[in-house]
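Can't paste images in this forum, so I'm doing it all in text. The chain is below; anyone willing to post the predicted structure tokens underneath?
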Amino acid sequence: MNQTLQLGPLAFPFALLLAMAALALGLFAGRALGRRTGVDPEPLLWRLLAVGAIAARLAFVLQFHDAYLKAPLQILDVRDGGWTPLAGFAAAAIYAIACGLRRAPLRSPLAAALGTVTIVWAVGTLVLGALSGEVGRLPALRLQALDGRTVALADFQGKPTVLNLWATWCPPCRREMPVLLQAQGQRPEVNFVFLNQGESGPTVQAFLAAQGLPLRNVLLDARGEAGIQLGHRALPTTLFFDAQGRLVDTRVGELSPATLDQRLAAASPSSPTK
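Text version of the structure:
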């Protein structure tokens, strides 16, 4: 099953769409019950959303503070996908309880909103898990390297492996390349494999030379077969496999040092995060 909704050049992971749907339905339920009881909970519901989002971001930043200390402004760049949803939900719930204790008429709308979000998220997560089928594995593909060799992706099994689907024309792909290059040098126990999607060898070589990116394991996936087999067509997409070749995590979108560290921990939990 494809795990993203593709609308022209835009791609939306189903997990993100589920979160947006859960929040929208929660707001709708809270507002509907508020109207019936003669109160307007909408301003408070939006504050709950803001509290949850800020708490989810701050919890992630604190967990990976070393990475953000090197570049503090990256804390504000939420494009990296660095969130701790459970912390956000807990903060929103605590704030809702505190508000409900002070204003009794708001208790029912707040409970309806939080309950709806919880149910939609839980059911949606179970449905997405069931539709995704069995755990993905390293694709059984043989691709051409820049030096002309043919490389089987299965040969990377035995060590945790990071597959990055990218293209030279993709701005977020270009922005995250230095992050992946640094990790490749710091994490010799992990295979970093760069699968260029649909471009020629000379184009890729010219780009890497111009950008000063001495990447290893750059392979040409001329027909985008890896993305098709793994259900991901959006760029950039980075897939994380454990040493047995099982898919353990996926990031659709740009990586920062912190979000890369987070996902590397899932692929190689016994290795220290650097």
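Residues 7-131 form one domain. The chain has two domains: 7-131, 142-267.
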